[in-house]
Amino acid sequence: MEIAIDTSTGLVGIALSDMGELIDEEVWTAGRNHTVELMPAVLGLLSRHGSSASDLSAIFVAIGPGSFSALRVGISAAKGLALGTGSLLVGVGTMWIEAAPFEDEQLPLRPILDAARGELSVGHFVSSPSGLEELASPALMTVEGLVSDAASPTFFCGEHLPVVRETLATALGDRARFPETTRVERRPRYLSAIGWRRLQNPKVANLGVAPIYARPPSISKPNLAKAARR
Length: 230
Hints:
Blueprint: E1 2-6, E2 11-18, E3 21-29, H1 34-48, E4 58-62, H2 68-85, E5 88-92, H3 94-99, E6 109-114, E7 120-128, E8 131-141, H4 143-149, E9 154-157, H5 161-172, E10 176-177, H6 188-199, H7 224-229
Parallel strand pairs: 1-4, 4-5, 6-9, 9-10
Antiparallel strand pairs: 1-2, 2-3, 6-7, 7-8
């Protein structure tokens, strides 16, 4: 049995699976309450299915890009569970989870997340006979930059799509393709499925899970003016 944990953004998802096949999942908006809400939800999900953390053989965790604090909560919880139970730990990029429902689209896939400060975090995938293929690491760009980058018909998806969908549709016309639904909700079931597939490669599991932030944390760069005054 495996647990999947996604706290990339304010939208939190957890899923319970068996060999990657979904048993149950929960998705909710946590805002900034990830620390308070995550572990009770995980333990509650296990309990409802007559299980406990000791029954887990693997932990799948979303590693971003996403919010600095939110990602740290999910990854810390996943590492704690893996350490406490001896479970294998697999990290999966959040853009993969966003793109997974649309892997049958025969167009470039551009998942979109909010990167704050008027910018977007954008992934880049294509479908191949073996599944999704990531063409480039997530990039930080403006919506204008994304429009300029979409030179050919492109399928847009991702949690932040509803915010920029109209702009993309107006600017790109027929070159912009979208999911049929206007509500775009990231589902942890895809994290479970991707994590299980990666678990079959012994080189992937327990490689070390590090977060991918939408932008470097502000604390990572000293304020030069303040430093000069010291």
